[in-house]
Amino acid sequence: VSPAPRLRALGALAVAALLSALWLLWLLSYGVAHCRLTTDRSLLASANAVVFHHRELQTRQTRLPLAERPQGQPWVWASMESPSHTRGLGRLRGVFNWVLSYRRDSDIFNSQHRDYITEKFWRNALLAGTVPVVLGPSRVTYEAFAPPDAFVHVDDFGSAHELAAFLAGMNESRYQRYFAWRDRFRVRLFGDWRERFCAICARYPHLPPGQVYQDLEGWFQA
């Protein structure tokens, strides 16, 4: 079976169709079998799950096909933006069953907001070979995603003066210790939404049936 065509930009609607009548191996390199992903909206009625990207819902570039939704079909709300950049959740009450986001308490897990670490931490700092000074999420949250010796966290200091003194007084040996993790790890950026869709395929059999986010805005803003 040939691989699925390269997915275009997420656009308005992506359908994650795990069809019982048609099982195919998609992108074997990700190790997820029996999963078909498509943007063909004509498959809405037969899809096992439908994924909506919030950016298009927020800007009203697309609409939710509520009238055409098959009874019991799970819908997935997908967003990698922080609450500060997310609007319009109030009108989505009782619509979505599962969430795909950066938060570890999301159904599908792939700042001052829970678990939100800006991509600049990876792209502009670690990948660029610098030592980031971070704030927002706790050190524990950062250490869940990055080596503990790869960054400086402001919470490790009692005041801005202590932080400044530490940075200004750091010698070369201490500075180089912030790069020791590179001998053990490498930075990998998830720039392709297909990788996140694969997480849906892997999690699908274990997602809670019948779950509904009655207050998606309240959950996401918490």
TrEMBL record:
Query: What SUPFAM superfamilies does this protein's entry cite?
Result: UDP-Glycosyltransferase/glycogen phosphorylase (SSF53756)
Give, as one word, the top-level EC class: transferase
Q: Which pathway does it serve?
A: Protein modification; protein glycosylation
Q: Where in the cell is it found?
A: Golgi apparatus, Golgi stack membrane
The EC code for this enzyme is 2.4.1.-
Which GO CC annotations does the UniProt entry carry? Golgi cisterna membrane
Membrane topology, as annotated: Single-pass type II membrane protein
Q: Where is the Fucosyltransferase C-terminal domain?
A: 110-219
UniProt cross-references to Gene3D superfamilies, sorted A to Z: Glycosyl transferase family 10, C-terminal domain
* Keyword Metal-binding in record: no
One annotated GO molecular function: alpha-(1->3)-fucosyltransferase activity
Q: Which InterPro entries match?
A: Glyco_tran_10_C (IPR055270), Glyco_trans_10 (IPR001503), GT10-like_C_sf (IPR038577)
Work out whether the entry's keyword set contains Glycosyltransferase: yes
Read off the PANTHER family from this record: ALPHA- 1,3 -FUCOSYLTRANSFERASE, ALPHA-(1,3)-FUCOSYLTRANSFERASE 7
Spell out the family assignment given in the record's similarity comment: Belongs to the glycosyltransferase 10 family.
What protein does this entry describe? Fucosyltransferase
Q: Where does this protein come from, organism-wise?
A: Balaenoptera physalus (Fin whale)
